[in-house]
Amino acid sequence: MRLAVFDARQYDRDALEAANARFGHMLTFFEPRLTAQTARLAAAFPAVCSFVNDRLDAEALELLHGEGVRLVALRSAGYNHVDLEAAARLGLSVTRVPEYSPFAVAEYAVALVLALNRRIHQAYARVRDWNFSLEGLVGFDLHGKTVGLVGTGRIGRAAAHIFRGFGCRVLCYDAVPDTNLELETGVRYVSLDLLYRESDILSLHVPLTPQTHHLVDADALARMKRGVMLINTGRGALVDSRALIDALKSQHVGAAGLDVYEEEEGIFFRDLSGQVLQDDVLARLLTFPNVLVTSHQAFLTREALARIAETTLESVRAFEQGEPLAHEVRAEQVLRPVSAKDQGAGTRNDM
Q1: Angle 102-117/120-128 helices, nearest 10 degrees?
Q2: Can you tell me the distance from the alpha carbon of 108 to that of 202, in angstroms, rounded to the nearest whole number?
Q3: Per the residue annotation, which of 235, 307, 327, 348 is the catalytic one?
Q4: Residues 94 and 113 in one domain
Q5: Residues spanned by the domain of 66
Q6: Is 150 helix (H, G, I), strand (E, B) or coil?
Q7: Is 235 tagged catalytic?
Q8: Catalytic: 264?
Q9: What's the pTM?
Q10: What are the tens digits of pLDDT across the range 227-258?
Q11: Is 322 a domain residue?
């Protein structure tokens, strides 16, 4: 089947071409994001492949439909960038990759914790200038600290195992508690309020839904322990960025590790080094020495890319053969109760 792959970087091409040796689809790669402005590039393609920062609103979907597209294959777990009601109205099938590597994202969340705690990013910058002073680089033992995990889907579960390996006390919140995880690891499910109050480190692993938008807002931040470290490898809009800036300025939040940002569309996955950053909120976040921002790379491992490519191309194959789509996404799924169980392995709607 002819497949137009949008927002394609070299690592996407490498993974998809390697996986396609088994499927034999005809892949055409486009560097631009898939939006209403670029949708006509998909003319005569029955299927398109989209990534997380594309914008598949009603206008874009109508244009795709008019060009003959019948399948939108998301190479992500998240689907909050797709107007699923419009897709259903137009008869477009939408598939996703619900599971790729929970370990990739969970390990990255822990990497952010370690880097922030031990000031690794600051230490690296210092020694590059031949400054070998240790002043201002004091961290804390992770052993014995309380880690709060919001969401215990596959990524949250993997994170729980890792943090327990460090000797942390782990508190969890999920609309659907996982009793097996409690038995396996000794974590404890608590209310969200208690998790906020007791966590030294708080890591978000829930999908973005209307219910979880700005889950961490000014009120939630105020309920957290002073000096808390906040980690977000899920979706940027889980956190109210302006409220986070206020909490960082007052030193109520001690550190923040953000692999996602709520206005990342049009910024992340691009080289803007020769330009002036137009997003004032992101620019302010980047001024804090205790904030580490990376550009949505938690998923970026060889294993995860291979799994994403294989699952995506398998969905295209099934669609071409008229078979049931195992990973189809429908509009009614957006209205489910907030639970990490909905996120699959990749955030999530995490990626």
Answers
A1: 60
A2: 14
A3: 235
A4: no
A5: 2-100+302-336
A6: strand
A7: yes
A8: yes
A9: 0.89
A10: 999 999 999 999 999 999 999 999 999 999 99
A11: yes
